[in-house]
Amino acid sequence: MTDLPSTMRGVHLIGHGGLDKLVVRDDIPVPRPGPGEVLIQVGAAGVNNTDINTRVAWYSKTDGASEDATWSGTPLQFPRIQGADVCGQVVAVGPGVEPDRLGTRVLVEPCLREAYGRPLATPWYFGSECDGGFADYALVAARHAHGIDSVLSDVDLASFPCSYSTAENMLTRATVKAGDRVLVTGASGGVGSAAVQLARARGAQVIAVTSPAKAESLRALGAEETLTRDQHVVEALGRNSVDVVVDLVGGSAWPALLDVLRPGGRYAVSGAIAGPMVTLDLRTLYLKDLTLVGATVLDEGVFAALVDHIAAGRVKPLVAATYPLEAIAEAQTAFLEKGHVGKIVLTVADKG
């Protein structure tokens, strides 16, 4: 630990607002691990909707307010280093952590149940309630730094944690199994493309909603059928025709997602890119005995299962573009244009 530098590069989010709230610095103190913690030299860090939603205060349910503008509904502390998707190497350990963790290549579990040496009553999100990976070094509880043995690069591995664990969590809560017919909205994004792969890994049949330009890419990932975003799902598939809906979109077309579910069907949501306010006919919900599930906090074992999928090669990375850490504003601009399939990743100290 004595060989560590005293300062590091990083991106400070200094307030809610536009891209001007992202400030690249090279004089941020390098954190030191406390009891039960490890310090990670970041190789690469992925860009997420969560980063942008937090920056612009999208999570706030009160217009013009920022007191509840994080996914957990607690005020954000500024400056904050964001970045939930992290791959890197353990370079220092705190008291109580086995020294053989040093040098281990790790993926950070983004949903934290422990931080600063103590268990959390309410889980935190890496890069939201505490500093994340948009920096040379990041601090996390050792239990959330999962060792990974893979030939993939740091950039490739950084494309997995947030999107793929979110997708795996949704599939777990919706009890997706072999033979299920699963409809995935927003299928070309990070979580959507992960859900397509992970549902196929479970033996499910996948229908992906995407743009015509991205349809072939989704079929290559395992989608048996694709729909365009302007198609009405009931007209295209028929009523009561799918077992599970994995939804990342919401918006005005939402009621049809329940109409297309079979009686006893399951709906899981972890995003609302087309709008958070929807209309629910309660008769559809109870007369069809549907199960509606929101999925944010990872269930125990979900991230470990994802690491096993990665190590076994059952899922593959989808890196659409890379940018250096200092170009975070350009990376988020490209992300918002939604012209990509998969993930945009910031390179920090990628060792390949």
Strand content is: 25-35%
**Average pLDDT over all residues:** 93
Count of structural domains:
2
Q: Which topology of the largest domain does CATH recognise? A: Quinone Oxidoreductase, Chain A, domain 1
Structural class: alpha/beta
- The N- and C-terminal alpha carbons lie at a distance of 24 Å
- Give the beta-strand count: 17
Q: In sequence order, what are the helices and strands, one letter per element? A: EEEHEEEEEEHHEHEHEHEHEHEHEHE
Please report the number of helical segments.
10
Overall CATH class of the largest domain = Alpha Beta
**What is the helical fraction, as a range of percent?**
10-25%
CATH superfamily of the largest domain: Medium-chain alcohol dehydrogenases, catalytic domain
**Low-confidence regions:** none
Question: Brief overview, please?
Answer:
With about 350 residues, this protein is α/β, with parallel strands linked by helices. It is about 25% helix and about 30% strand.
Structure overview:
There is one protein chain. With 352 residues, the chain is an alpha/beta fold. The protein has 10 helices and 17 strands. Strands 3, 4, 5, 8, 9, 16 and 17 form a 7-stranded mixed beta sheet that branches. A 6-stranded parallel beta sheet has the order 12-11-10-13-14-15. The protein has a two-stranded antiparallel ribbon with strand order 1-2. The protein is globular and about 65 Å long.
Name some characteristics of this structure:
2 domains; seven-stranded mixed sheet; Quinone Oxidoreductase, Chain A, domain 1; 352 residues; Rossmann fold; alpha/beta
